[in-house]
Design brief:
CATH class of one domain: Alpha Beta
CATH architecture of one domain: Roll
Number of strands: 31
Helix content: 10-25%
CATH superfamily of one domain: membrane protein fhac
Radius of gyration: 32 Å
Strand content: 35-45%
Shape: globular
Length: about 750
């Protein structure tokens, strides 16, 4: 990077590239990451250990303005040059910040090492002893709020024995403001709170007084002789689901429903009950900022509105009574929409195209119901490893899903409904698969619920998940091979699946703040238990058949963990780990075909085509349905803005699938703790994304780094004469891979 072809070639003799800074603190508990934010000079950022953006910038000739030089300068990062003044300002910033955190006699020293073209800085920080809070007292001009404030001191950020930290003092003001607003004090702000600090006999200990002023407005209380802070109660609630074209307004229709007024500017485009269920501010209830936020979230989650605005107006303030009128304005979104999805993969001369169209109606029965109808189709031209062209694979399917924003139960659950905002789901689907060796149809019916646990997590439960799988045609030679393959045993006969499944989803993304976040999804499903119980109790014959049709028994569980690390508004690194296992039991010796794991493709290990990797080191030149009972996968992807709506990506994928145990016809395909790591496939590549706001088009070029199917001990493609590293796999998809 610093050779004659790197950025150093444009440095003058007195300029040095700032390549490293390190902060050492004599107390380990100090947050180095936070300290870094106060550093005035920091090296060029690294991506996967390389200064990628600096390298791009160095490719531009400073004497040329035309493409590609101007483009390299735009997406690259100019070299950070060593500046002694900025190092000095960094020292001052560290000292000031640590003094605010309560430390006395903070000493910050800097040591700079230089070579001919580089400079490194090291900051050594000695904190000294902190000032400690010795006692905390509260003083109230308005004693009517004293009991309420005391009831929540357990959550205070200020603690006796803790450092005198100015950051925590500000956080405490914000905490009390939020607490008061959640308890009806609509007009209360942090400006009413101030602190006084008194010395003690000990030089490093102080006494703190937290003071709260009386209300600056409102009527004077003759008893307390102050202006009291008053709790506000919700009075009138008016909800207006408006339309955007006011010229189309012919009449205004007001409906009173559960003491709330619904004002329709035209037709009754949404039922009053749906709007009232999503509103958490009920007439007569105490004002709460938490309920305001929940109302925004609940109305937004209906998917019916372009924006939501909640406003309040004081309707009466007299004596001890303070009332608020609440007005909720809603702007309806388009009721219907269409979306498209296309995936293209090209691996080893096999070209596959998968596409679909999805129709959405977000208010089909005027109760916030979401109807989704999807049509999918796929075709893949196949060429086996003997370079013989065979019949292409074809697939078509239709899926219908209806979701309603309420619990459909045989009993009332009003409290649960209001607190957790459940939804009921019903889905039906049919899929037709025409493979060279068989034709399969899969019908599915599913019924279930999903509900919110809190603002970050959601639960989904499908007590009924039913599949009926039929095979109108199976090649006779293929049948013979299937009975020798324990992976596929019973999978190519007509069968049914009746089970239940549960999912837990966690997502702490905060869209407006642009900070790093985590996504987790856990799935658990079980099938066959109920049918087996019915068979045993009824005595209807063979355990493995239900009305003459084979059924499966199994348990399957997996987890998907993702960490979205936002470096700057223009670039981020995403990490993903997936692990899953399916275990047959009872009358089943294998998982059903449609429930097995597979790997490869545009949303998996992208250096391999869809369903072409594994299990383990196994490789079948004539098979395009490599399936397993266990799946492990890890991905890392660096995403960065290039220019306009164009984004770039560098990625690495690793993983594989395995059987629960070795199959006679597939040696070493079973999962073993002492050797599974030897079967890990590794791929890398580059990607280009076009973000059009309403859709993101993605292309990935995947290169095999480590192929477990290579015979012998050396599995790395760039060292093996059996593989060509530059034989890439092309993937095209809609949306990010994860």
């Amino acid at each position: 990077m610093l050779s004659s072809c790197g950025p150093a070639r444009y440095l003058s003799e007195d300029e040095k590239l700032f390549v490293k800074s390190k902060i050492s603190v004599d107390k380990r508990k100090t947050d180095i990451i936070t300290l870094k934010k106060y550093e005035r000079i920091s090296p060029n950022k690294k991506v996967l250990g390389m200064r990628f953006h600096l390298f791009l910038f160095s490719l531009a000739n400073p004497e040329k303005e035309k493409f590609p030089h101007n483009w390299f300068r735009k997406i690259g990062e100019a070299p950070v040059l060593y500046d002694s003044v900025l190092v000095s300002k960094s020292r001052d910033n560290f000292a000031s910040y640590l003094a605010d955190r309560g430390y006395n006699k903070v000493n910050v020293e800097s040591n700079v090492k230089t070579t001919k073209s580089k400079a490194k800085a090291r900051y050594n920080i000695s904190l000294g002893e902190p000032t400690i809070i010795n006692s905390i007292r509260y003083a109230f001009e308005d004693t009517s709020i004293q009991k309420l404030i005391y009831s929540d001191t357990i959550n205070s950020f200020l603690k006796i024995g803790k450092p005198f930290d100015k950051v925590m003092f500000q956080a405490e003001r914000e905490r009390i403001e939020t607490f008061m607003k959640n308890n009806g004090y609509y007009r209360f702000t942090r400006e009413y709170i101030y602190f006084e600090v008194y010395p003690t006999a000990h030089p490093l200990k102080v006494k703190v007084s937290l003071n709260i002023k009386q209300n600056l407005t409102g009527p004077f209380d003759p008893v307390l002789k102050v202006r009291k802070h008053r709790q506000h109660y919700i009075n009138n609630v008016t909800i207006t689901p408006s339309i955007t074209n006011f010229e189309g307004i012919r009449k205004i229709d007001t409906v009173l429903y559960k003491e709330q007024s619904i004002v329709y500017m035209s037709e009754r485009i949404i039922k009053p009950a749906t709007l009232v269920r999503a509103n958490n501010m009920l007439p007569g209830s105490l004002y709460s900022l938490k309920n305001v936020d929940r109302t925004y979230n609940d109305l937004g989650s209906l998917g019916l509105f372009r924006y939501v605005n909640v406003d309040f107006e004081e309707s009466r303030v007299s004596g001890n009574e303070a009332l608020l009128d609440c007005k909720i304005d809603l702007s309806m979104r388009k009721r219907q929409s269409y979306s498209f999805e296309v995936n293209v993969t090209n691996s080893s001369n096999d070209l596959g195209i998968r596409g679909g169209v999805v129709y959405n109606n977000y208010n089909i029965f005027r109760g916030g119901e979401h109807l989704q109808i999807g049509l999918t189709g796929a075709i893949e031209s196949l060429e086996n490893r003997l370079k013989q062209v065979i019949e292409p694979m074809r697939e078509a399917g239709v899926t219908t899903k209806l979701e309603t924003p309420k619990f459909i139960l045989p009993f009332k659950a009003d409290n649960f409904q209001r607190k957790y905002k459940p939804r009921t789901e019903l889905s039906l689907s049919y899929n037709y698969q025409n493979q060279p060796k068989y034709i399969r149809t899969i019908a599915n019916a599913s019924f279930g619920y999903n509900w919110r646990g809190n603002i970050y997590n959601r639960h989904t439960l499908h007590p009924l998940d039913f599949y009926l799988v039929k095979l109108p045609r199976v090649d006779s030679a293929y049948i013979d091979s299937i009975y020798k393959d324990t992976r596929l045993e019973n999978s190519f006969e007509n069968h049914t699946i009746l089970g239940s499944k549960y999912s837990f989803e966690f997502n702490n993304q905060q869209l407006k703040r642009g900070i790093s976040f985590v996504y987790i999804r856990y799935n658990l499903e079980s099938a066959g238990f109920l049918l087996n119980l019915i068979n045993k109790r009824s005595g209807w014959g063979e355990d493995s058949l239900f009305f003459g049709v084979q059924y499966f028994q199994y348990i399957k569980t997996d987890i998907d963990f993702r960490n979205y690390n936002i470096i700057t508004p223009r670039d981020r690194i995403v990490y993903r780990i997936f692990a899953g296992v399916g275990i047959p039991y009872g009358n089943s010796r294998s998982l059903p075909f449609e429930k097995k794991y597979w790997s490869g493709g545009p949303y998996g290990i992208r250096a391999w085509g869809e369903r072409t990797l594994g299990p383990g080191p196994y490789f079948d030149a004539g098979s395009f349905n490599q399936l397993g009972d266990i799946k492990l996968e890890a991905n890392i992807e660096y995403r960065f803005k290039v220019i306009w709506k164009l984004e770039g990506a560098l990625f690495m994928d690793a993983g594989n699938i395995w059987l629960l145990e070795d199959a006679p016809e597939l040696p070493r395909s079973g999962f073993k703790f002492n050797q599974f790591y030897k079967d890990i496939a590794v791929g890398t590549g580059i990607g280009i994304r076009l973000d059009l706001s309403f859709v993101l088009l993605r292309t990935d070029f995947g290169f095999k780094l480590r192929d477990p199917s290579i015979e012998g001990g050396n599995k790395w493609t760039f060292r093996s004469p059996e593989r060509d590293f530059w034989d890439f796999t092309f993937q095209f998809g809609i949306g990010y891979p994860f």
